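Repro:
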Amino acid sequence: MSHHIPSIGFISLGCPKALVDSEQIITRLRAEGYAIQPDYKSSDVVVINTCAFIDDAVEESMQAISEALNENGKVIVTGCLGAKQGVVEQAFPDLLAVTGPHAADEVMNAIHQHLPPDTDPKLSLIPPGGIKLTPRHYAYLKISEGCNHRCTFCIIPALRGDLVSRPVTEVMDEAEGLISAGVRELLVVSQDTSAYGLDTRYRSDFWRGKPLKTRFLELSQALGELGAWVRLHYVYPYPHVDQVIPLMAEGTILPYLDVPLQHANHDILKAMKRPANAENVLRRIEKWREICPDITLRSTFIVGFPGETEQQFQELLDFLETAQLDRVGAFAYSPVDGAAANALPDHVPEEIKQDRLQRFMAVQENISEQRLARRVGRIEDIIIDSKDEEGYIGRSKSDAPEIDGVVFLDGDFDLKAGDIVRAKITDHNAHDLWAEIQKS
């Protein structure tokens, strides 16, 4: 009689921070001998890590839960949607358990209750660095949980709580383990990356026998010394962010900064409870580029926020033209259950929001194409992601995986994912680059 291995189906939805939560749960599952299955039929229990950031994410999560219940019947829900009191339970009373985000212990307890682990020690082997849901050559490194800000369009603090920074030695140990396991690029994420250590009063600790502060600058420096690409995401534009730009200029970390600015108009930013000084932001961008000419700046914006007038939207477009950001994402404002912005007056009609979104992206597409055109003829480092029938696909230091562009590479070379090559940029469009691999 064959031995049955307890099996878990796992669905991870939402942002990179949620993905890290999923990786931590899956690592613990594998360490206890559970098999992770790709389909409902092979799974004894299904775990769904949900998202609730915007209404579309809620709908996607609810659909995933409904499908899992129909196809399997034994479902545990975790993540941000689970933190919305009673919403999931009322819609799906037959769930085995519901938890909020960052709740690995609760998820594991629920799994143990409904599907006890196998005790065979041969099944509890896990790879160095734990289980990752990303390709082997890059990984998300989550440095904190929660957020102290109260942006009116966001409910993350209500779902994930206030800022809690991970101990700096724990972060560094994880980073070192990931690199030892073959990771070539660390993507540093949190709800508010540049606030790292604020809740600890920037406590000093020791790593490799030397003092190391629990602070954004010192962590960036230490990570950069490990030898991998280090990319900073979700960096709130505090003044002290200026201090990491020299690290980019000298090559310690990647010259890439993801700063969610959200808007440019003073009154809209004030209504959002965001820093409300676009002129100051423009001066800082100019300074950053003086210090590090190759810096890539990514940001996200919301159009059609309640009360946004055509004049205020035009101010946002003017800001785009002046700032000349390299990579930009945008969203039409969407009411989120529980967000303070829902109570603001003068909500913008949906058709106007969509029109503004299209106009916004048309302006940014033109900017992006012009900025990419400047790179034609340059020789740059490219990290290989994959290969198809036409050649290799990679990314430059300016491209984060999944959200930015890619580089299509010509050249008959024997390469694998994670290899870093030198390549000459030969062509471009509004989003991507083409390049020829250079012989060493």
